[in-house]
Amino acid sequence: MPEMPEVDALVADLRARMTGAVVAGVEPASFAVLKTFDPPLDALLGLTVTGVHRHGKFIDIDVDGLHLVIHLAKAGWLRWSDKLATTRLKMGNGPIALRLRLDLGDGPTSGFDLTEAGTRKGLAVYLVRDPADVPGIAALGPDPLGEGFELRPLLARRMQVKRLLRDQKILAGIGNAYSDEILHAAKLSPFAIAEKLDDAEIGRLETAITEVLAEALEEAHGKPPAELKDDKRTRMRVHGRTGEACPVCGDTIAEVVFSGSSLQYCPTCQTDGKPLKDRSTSKFVK
Predict the structure, then answer these.
(1) What is the model's pTM?
(2) Long-range pairs for 43-47 at CB < 8 Å and ≥24 separation?
(3) Per-residue model confidence (pLDDT) at position 278
(4) Which of 123, 140, 201, 204 is geometrically suited to a Cys-Cys bond with 172, CB 3.0 to 4.6 A?
(5) Where are the chain's structural domains?
(6) What pLDDT is recorded for position 286?
(7) Pairing state between β 76-81 and 110-116
(8) Formamidopyrimidine-DNA glycosylase catalytic domain: from which residue to which, for each copy (predicted)?
(9) In which residue ranges of the chain is pLDDT below 50?
(10) Which of 202, 190, 207, 187 is nearest to 249 (CA)?
(11) CATH of domain 152-270
């Protein structure tokens, strides 16, 4: 799943490519992808892209005051093209869910396709007059790299810290991968209870959130969209590294599997050498 660093880099790339372009076509190819009906998609035709912004993991394309909002979910992605196919998309079961055609002054040749792999469909597109009209944006917690961010008040919850980091209503933008990386850097168990963390643990967690995300942002920015997901995978130290050696201590990276996903951690660095019990539950997914 693309998380805040990749979405932020994608937004910056789109902002540079799209600002000033005129919308020449919007072609949905999936009945499920569009989550709103008023205003209709054809309201965008002939309007100009005035900006592209990020809200958590949401992409917000401002088109003369209308907002085309995209959530890529687990398996969605955006594929830019300087020369789109001229044939119009048809409704079907293919990987392309929606196409946006743009006129950058040389005709309606540029734009992007929204694609989604797999059978579990979560890719979502909204057309709204205010980004806050999207329920997921309205419910977002603070951005962990935003000005004035404070972690300590958010920890007053009796919940596992792994789940807290992933909960978009508490913190915006962190998902499964970067929560694993943050907890490894902070030397904390994913199962640690947030409200029971002591001052030293909170300090390590604050530092890890800032450093891991800031480093990921720096690495992601400037890369073309087609490279962002693979680049993310190569930078992970523990996430997706089950069975490999921890780059800090050399212990073997372990895994806990839960509903449709998994987490990875280092027993030596994070749990005093004790393996975590494999809990098949959906509580980490919320």
Answers:
(1) 0.92
(2) 43/127, 44/68, 44/127, 46/22, 47/22, 47/23
(3) 72
(4) 140
(5) 4-138, 152-270
(6) 36
(7) antiparallel
(8) 2-93
(9) 280-286
(10) 187
(11) 1.10.8.50
Read off the amino acid at residue 157. R
Q: What is the pLDDT of residue 92?
A: 76
Superfamily of domain 4-138: MutM-like, N-terminal (3.20.190.10)
Q: What was the pLDDT predicted at 2?
A: 86
Number of residues written out for the chain:
286
For 16-26, letters b (16+ CB in 10 Å) and e give ebbeebbbbbb
**Count of CA atoms in the C-beta half-sphere (13 A) of 28:** 18
Residue 190 exposure: Cα atoms within 13 Å on the Cβ side: 30
Do 43 and 97 form a contact (C-beta atoms < 8 A)? no
The residue assigned the tokens 């912004």 is: 53
Rounded Cα distance between 87 and 123, Å, is 23
Longest dimension (CA), the chain: 62
**C-alpha to C-alpha distance for 109 and 183, rounded to whole angstroms:** 44
